Amino acid sequence: MLVEVSGILIVGMDQQGRITFISQSCEELSSYSRQEVLGKSFFSLLVSEGYRAKARQAFKQAIGGIVPTQFVSEWVLKSGEHRVIEWRNIVSTDTKGAIQSIFAIGIDITESVHVEEGFRSSNQDLEFYALLLRHDIGNDLQVIISSAELIRMLLPPGSEVQESSESIEAAANRIGRLLNILGHPEKDVETEIIVLLERLGAQATKAHKGLTVVITAPPEIRNLRVARGRFLPLVFDNLFRNAAKHAGLSPKVNVKVAHISDHVQIDVIDNGPGIPAEIRPKLFQSGVSTTGGGLGLYLSRLILEFYGGSIDILDTAHEQGAAFRITLQLALQTEKGIETLLDDF
Question: For residue 328, what pLDDT is reported?
């Protein structure tokens, strides 16, 4: 009764591989009745041709005492449908150790295999798209950067056009960094958070005319490292860009870094108009913003959560300005050096 209600595929065989028993779940899946399969070869009836050699090898191993033996095969049902089955062979013996029966216990893993194949196909597509982006867009960016450099060389220093060319070059470099992020493994990512913030702030001031970014941190945490995450620069790029967009002609961003227990706390505060009260509770949802779009903060939250961090709106006493608090996990300190919390990513 347990066998019949278990839902597991169970096939009993003799030492020649002839079927002596099948469970009700086998009948239901295959549409073969017990009368149709009893005495037939397990390999020819329940295993498709391309998998029979592997099934026979597992069967011989089970008879030879190597148990349990496991193999995956394809089963062509009576309807012609193909199902992927993961089989495990076990042997039943009498009190003297003589083999009485071999049982193949199977689980239908067809759907799991299809999902895995879908993921694999999607990953291949993503790798191709990333390669295409890095190649084609990378080449175009080099043209833009070279043209901007030429403009700066030909025009007198301090001219408005030259300043615009510097912004173009900085923006192009930022896009180039994004392409590099997609093309480099996690282990190559910069993890010294102060150095990272200073670099991103300097690049943002070049890309956005009039923007000022001030990084404040105690000297003792200068070499503080966070658990590596190659998409972290996108979070700060987004906050700096939002400040430049919304904080008027002289946007300023103050970035205050502190070491709190096992994490680093980063407050990012600008001098803009702030965040309207009506959208504050849902600011990090997809599509929510003051000007439409609204994917930037939503994606920033996803990135930070992926790396074990967080981002929240910071309540301040200032009447103006958007303020955010970011927390990031610190890298683990070991005798051999810095080890990260998120190497698996």
Answer: 92
Question: Cα separations (Å) of 119 from 40, 112, 116, 126?
Answer: 38, 11, 5, 10
The position carrying tokens 């070869």 is 41
Alpha carbons 25 and 86: distance in angstroms, whole number: 15
Name which of 107, 175, 191, 168 is nearest 139 in CA terms.
175
For 209-228, write each residue's pLDDT tens digit.
Answer: 789 999 999 988 888 888 76
d(CA 154, CA 322): 39
Question: What DSSP string runs through 197-221?
Answer: HHHHHHHHHHHSTT-EEEEE--GGG
Q: Span 2-108: which CATH code? A: 3.30.450.20
Distance of alpha carbon 163 from alpha carbon 169, whole angstroms? 10
In the chain, % of residues over pLDDT 90: 13
CA R_g for the chain: 31
Overall pTM surpassing 0.70 (yes/no): no
Domain 187-345 grouped into CATH 3.30.565.10 = yes
Q: How far apart are CA 177 and CA 234, in angstroms?
A: 9
The answer for residues whose C-beta is within 8 angstroms of residue 124's C-beta and 6 or more apart is: none
Q: b/e string for 227-251 if b means 16 or more Cβ within 10 A?
A: bbbbbbbbbbbbbbbbbbebbeeeb
Pairing, β 252-260 against β 69-76: unpaired
Domain range annotation of the chain: 2-108, 110-183, 187-345
| E-only strand ranges, 123-246 | 212-216
State which amino acid sits at residue 70.
Answer: Q
